[in-house]
Structures are given as C-alpha cells and as structure tokens.
Amino acid sequence: MKVILYGYGLMGKKVAHQLRKSDLFDLIGIVSYEFDEKAPENMYHRLTEVEDKADVIIDFSHPNNLDDILAYALKNKTKLVIATTGYQEEQLQKIEEAAKEIAIFQSYNTSFGVQMVTKILRQIAKEFYDNGYDIEILEKHHNQKIDAPSGTAKLLYEVMEEEIQETEPVYDRSSLHEKRKHEQIGIQAIRGGTIFGEHEIIFAGLDEVIEIKHTALSKDVFVQGALAAAKALADKECGLFTLKTLY
Q1: Is 141 a catalytic residue?
Q2: How far apart, in whole angstroms, are the C-alpha atoms of residue 173 and residue 194?
Q3: Which of 16, 52, 61, 80 is most buried (CB neighbours < 10 A)?
Q4: What are the backbone angles phi and psi of residue 138, rounded to the nearest 5°?
Q5: Per DSSP, what are the bridge partners of residue 185?
Q6: For residues 35 and 60, is the Cβ–Cβ distance under 8 A?
Q7: Which residues does 193 contact at the CB level (< 8 Å), separation at least 6?
Q8: For the whole model, what pTM was predicted?
Q9: Looking at residues 35-44, what average pLDDT do you find?
C-alpha cells in the first residue's frame, strides 16, 4: 500500500520508522507544517503539493489540517487513518460526510488495549450504575498535550453513555456548588512530565471501589494500532470505522 504520512512530530516520526521497516507499506511522502529534521522521503507542507496518488493517508497531525486531507482523499479516493484528536463537532460531521465516498478509520486512540476496555465497559457499566455506583474517569498525559480532556476519555464516556442514556459529563466540579448527582460522570485531566497516557475508570460504591485502568508504556502501541487500521481498510470501499467497528 502506498502511504502518505501527515504529521512529522514525535508520533509521526515513530510511524514513519515502522512504515520504512514494513514490507506491506510504501511510504511515498510526508506532509507537515514544519520539519525539524530532513526525512528520506519526499517532504511537503500541504497535500496540494503532492502529485502522486496514495492508497492511504495516516494522520497524526492537527485538526486544522482536516480540510486539506479530505480534499486530497476525496479527489484521489484515498483511504484515511485519522488518529488526530481535538476535532470540533463541525469537523466530525465533515469526516462522516466524506465517509460516504471513501473508507475512513477515525479514533482518538488506536491501541488494542483501549478497544478491550471499551468492550468491558459495555458489559459492566450499566449494572454498576443501576446498583448505585458513581462513575468517574481520570486521564493523565504528558505536559505537551494540547487538548483536555483527551479524546480517549471522551470515547470512554461515550461508550458508557450509550449504555446509560441518562448520564451527563462533568468536566469541572469547581464551578458546581452542590453535591454529586448520580447521573453525572466526572472526567478529569492531569498533565505532567512525559506520561504517555493513562486512563482510569472508577466505580465508587458503598464501602468499595472498583477500578479499570489502561496504561500506555510507550507510544508504539498507538503506532502499531494505526498500521493495523490501515491494513484493515484495504478491502473497504467506503464507510466510517472506529475501534468498535473495524475489526
């Protein structure tokens, strides 16, 4: 598969390294707003500069690049693996609309472990909730992460929201001068150091606490997940896929 990589920061460089080692993928170009080092492949600042046609674009960049990515992908019928976070609702609607014509994998987290956590939550969250347990989400990331809470934390909340429809997210309890309501699910973000990513779901009941936690020990788990998603899209003509629906 011919691949264009969008984004050449820390994650982009890790993805590029794995693509270069792969017999399945051919990295034909890298697109980035800026380069802090020279890459062995063709380097571009926008996809409008690219004349080659790629089979798939792997995106680890910034939400501002979405229009550039979708324009190229729709023109060339290129599949997309979108691992960028921080999209606004209007941008998510653009992705959904484009998926009517091309195959798109879009996820805030590409790791297999997080996929398993979502499956666990679908099975247990409502039963805990119905039995009076309060639910909280705590996420931790490095001090360079821009968005908060993380896209993965939002994903975990959405999974539980689908099972417990009366829930509502609470992002800042300092603005609330009232005791906790049962239907609230708190989502808290911590930023510091070089934490790769931790997500913890807490079920707090009467005199007991149950915790489900996923810890990424390196960013390589996200790289392997993105490459696996690109491979899985190979036989897809169109549609919007996530960790819940691609595999």
Answers
A1: yes
A2: 26
A3: 80
A4: -125, 125
A5: 135, 169
A6: no
A7: 142, 143
A8: 0.77
A9: 95
> What pLDDT digit, counting tens, does each position of 132-187 carry?
999 999 999 999 888 899 989 999 999 999 999 899 999 988 888 899 999 999 99
Query: Cα–Cα distance between 44 and 145 in angstroms, integer?
Result: 24
**pLDDT surpasses 70 at 247:** no
Q: How many CB atoms lie within 10 A of CB 131?
A: 10
Separation between Cα atoms, residue 122 and residue 119, nearest integer Å = 5
Axis-axis angle for helices 151-163, 112-130 (nearest 10): 40
The average confidence (pLDDT) of the chain is 94
Kindly state the average pLDDT of the residues 63-76.
97
Collect all residues with Cβ–Cβ distance below 8 Å to 135 and sequence separation of at least 6: 125, 128, 129, 160, 167, 185, 186, 201, 202, 203, 204
Type of residue numbered 137: I
Q: What is the pLDDT of residues 188-224, one digit of tens each?
A: 999 999 998 999 999 999 999 999 999 999 888 889 9
3-class DSSP state for residue 21?
helix
**pLDDT at residue number 208:** 98
CB 103 within 8 A of CB 239: yes
C-alpha–C-alpha distance, residues 72 and 85, integer Å? 20
The phi, psi pair for 238, rounded to 5°, reads: -160, 175
> CA 85, CA 62: separation in Å to the nearest integer?
7
* Alpha carbon 225 to its chain's center: 10
Look up 126 and say whether it is catalytic.
Answer: no
Of the residues 79, 141, 154, 199, which is catalytic?
A: 141
135: which 2 tokens?
A: 């639910």
81 or 244, greater pLDDT: 81
Among the options 145, 231, 236, 244, which is catalytic? 145
